C-alpha cells in the first residue's frame, strides 16, 4: 500500500494524493451495494408491519340507549378496547371548568367530545404510559382523584374526558375516529 | 502433504478424520491440554453451568415446539395439552420453565464473578462485551418465550414491554405497530415471537462460540487477578477442571431437580394460569423474577422516556465498564474499598428486585429511587474516581506463591532463598 501510493505520488510529479479512478469505482460500487442491501431488506422489514387483512378498516356500531348516566361500557375495535361512557352533567362540567394550565396535555374538554353530544365521551381505553387498560367504566371501579379513570399498572389518573392528570402517563387517552349516526347510535372507525 | 494435519490421535478412524479435519486436535488443545490457572475457586464453574443450561433449554424447547401451537386461539390450550396429555409433556415444560430461572441465576452469578475479580479489565474487555451481548440476547429470548403460553401475564407483559418503545420520540408509535404487526398484541405478534424464540437460542450458541474464542486468546482470569507467569501457574483443563466443573454440575442439577419436582410453580405467576384476556388488565403486572430489578428501575423514574432510557442504560453501562473502572488492579481481594462497594451494588440490585415485585407506593418508591441512584453512581461516578484514590494491597508475585507458600515446592519456608520463580523444577 505504502509503496503503491508512493509511486502514484511520483507519477503525479510530487502532487499530494488525488482521488484515483479506482477509488471512484470502489465508492460507486459500495454505494450501489448499500442501496441494494436496503432494497432487499425492506420487504423483510415491511412484512412485519400490519398486513392488509389487519389494516382493512373494520368499524363497529354501538347502540347507546342501554348506557345509563354515570355508566361506561367497553367495546372492541381493531383489537383495542374502546370506552363509551355516559357522563353526568356534573362530571362533564368539572372537566370543562378545569383551567387548562393545570393539565399535562392541555386540550379543552369541548374538543374531546362531539358538539351537542358532550355527555358522551368515547376513548381508546389504553393507558398512554405502557398500554394497560385503566379502570373506571363501572361506577364501582376506582376512578382516581379526578373521577375519570385510574390505571392499576403504574398509577396514572385521567379526568372524566380522559385527560391525564397524574403521571407517569405522558398523554391524554387517545380518541378513536367515530361519528354519531343518530342521537343514540355511534359508528367507530 | 502440505496442509494435512499431523494428528496425534491413537484411534485410526479418529486419526484419519483428524488428519483431514483437525477438530479433534482443536478440542484437545482448547479443552484438553488448555493451560488454566491453577487457583480457580467454584465461581469459575458458572460459565460451564451456563453452557449446560443453554443445552437443556434447547433440548426441551425443541420437543415442546413439536406440540405447541402458536395461535392466539390455540396456544393456551396446546400448553395445557402438553401438561396433561403429552407423554412426559409436564416434565419437558417444567424443565423448560424452571430452566429459564436456573439459566438466569447461573448467568447472574457468572457476571458477579466477573465484577468481583475484575475479569472485564485489560485484556478481556472484548470477552466481557460479548458476555453482555449474550445477556441481552438471553433476555430477549426469555421475554418472548414467556409470551408463548398466552396466559394473562404473557399477554400483559408483552403489552407493557413492547410499549416501552413508544417512548421513543417521533417514530415510537410506528415501531410498536411494526413490532406487533397490528394495533395491539395479537396473533401476528405471537407468531413472530415464536419464530424468534426458536431462532435466538441458536444465535446464542454462535455468540457463546465467540465468547469462548476470545477467552482462549486471553486465557482465564483467576481469583488473584494477576497474570499467569508461566507453566508453574497453570494446570491442564482436563482432567483438573473437567472434574471440578462436574462437581458443580452435580450440585446445579440437584437444585434444578428439586425445583422441577417439588416446587415447579414456585417462581411462576398464578395469573398465567388464566388465558390471555385483552380486555382486562390484571391488578398487578409483574415480570418474571429475573427482570424485576430492571422493571424497578423503569418504574423508579417518574418520566416515561426517562424510565425507559434508565432501564436500558443500566445494561448499557456494563458495556463500557472496562473503561469506567480506572484501577489497574483486577481482583477485589486487593481493593479494600471496592470490595465493600461491590457488595453495596449487589444489595441495591437485590433491593431493586424486591421493589420491582411490589406496587410502586410508599416506602417502595423511596427504596427504588435510592437503589437506582446507587446503581448508576457506582458505575458512572465511584468507579472512575476510586481507581485513582484507592490504595490497593500489595499483589502477590505470582499465582504459585500464595498457593504453595514462600520457598517453593520444597515443603516449609526456606529462609534466604530467592522468592522469585519458586517452581522452576520440571
Ligand atoms: C436461551 C434459551 C431459552 C430460554 C431462556 C427460554 C425461555 C422460555 C420461557 C421463559 C418460556 C415460558 C415458560 C412458561 O412459562 O411456560 C418458554 C416457553 C417456550 N419455549 Fe423456550 N427458552 C429457550 C430456548 C428455547 C428453544 C431453543 C426452543 C425451541 C423451539 C424453545 C421453545 C419454547 C416453546 C415451544 C415454549 C412454549 C411452551 C411453554 O410455555 O412451556 N425455547 N421459553
Ligand atoms: S400503563 Fe398505565 S400507568 Fe403504566
Structure report:
The complex is a heterodimer of chains A (189) and B (426). Chain A has 189 residues and is an alpha+beta fold. Chain A folds into two domains: 2-46, no CATH class; 54-188, 3-layer Sandwich (Rieske Iron-sulfur Protein). Helix content of chain A is 25%, strand content 22%. In chain A, the strands form three sheets. A three-stranded antiparallel sheet of chain A has the order 1-9-8, with no helix packed on it. In chain A, strands 2-3-4 form a three-stranded antiparallel sheet, with no helix packed on it. A three-stranded antiparallel sheet of chain A has the order 5-6-7, with no helix packed on it. In chain A, a hairpin with a 6-residue loop joins strand 5 and strand 6. The longest helix of chain A is centred in the N-terminal third of the chain and has 26 residues, at 21-46. Chain B is 62% helix and 1% strand. Chain B has helices spanning 12-20, 23-32, 46-65, 75-84, 89-116, 125-147, 152-163, 172-180, 187-218, 237-262, 292-300, 304-324, 336-357, 363-389, 400-404, and strands spanning 35-37, 234-236. A two-stranded antiparallel sheet of chain B has the order 1-2. Mean pLDDT of chain B is 91; it is low at 407-426. Classes of the chains: A alpha+beta (189), B mainly alpha (426). The complex binds protoporphyrin IX containing FE and FE2/S2 (inorganic) cluster. FE2/S2 (inorganic) cluster is lined by residues 127, 129-132, 151, 153-156, 168-169 of chain A.
Q: What is the fold named in CATH at topology level of the largest domain in chain A? A: Rieske Iron-sulfur Protein
**Measured distance between first and last alpha carbons of chain A:** 65 Å
One letter per element, helices H and strands E, the order of chain A comes to HHHEEEHEEEEEE
The amount of beta strand of chain A, in percent, is 15-25%
Multimerization state: heterodimer
- For the record, the CATH class of the largest domain in chain A is Mainly Beta
